[in-house]
Amino acid sequence: MHLNHDPKAPAAPTIEFDRFLAVDIRVGTIVAAEPFPEARKPALKLRIDFGPGIGVKQSSAQITRHYEPRTLVGRKVAAVVNFPPRQIGKFISEVLTVGFPDENGEVVLFSPDRPVPDGARLF
Fold first, then answer.
1. CATH number of the domain that 77 lies in?
2. Is the pLDDT of residue 43 over 70?
């Protein structure tokens, strides 16, 4: 499936609310970040703490344009936690960290603008 990142594109087709509820998006705190030079596209390896219910999960994120590993530790991010893990080289990405494209299509991370506990679910 190809996603249209054009901000002028119309909304995606209408879905039922239960399909939205099936996607489990949680907030977590980045506890570790490091370069991922083996990835085909520039990426970072993240370890994100989603609290006691989900725990710490790892993610490969193509966010190198705007973020460096040292600036990410302690940052709150949102991620889909109920997709199956993906093998990326020798690395298993367990969650999909989410963001929005900037005017050049580069990822800008999505995070809450007020304090929320790790593991809180988007609704």
1. 2.40.50.140
2. yes
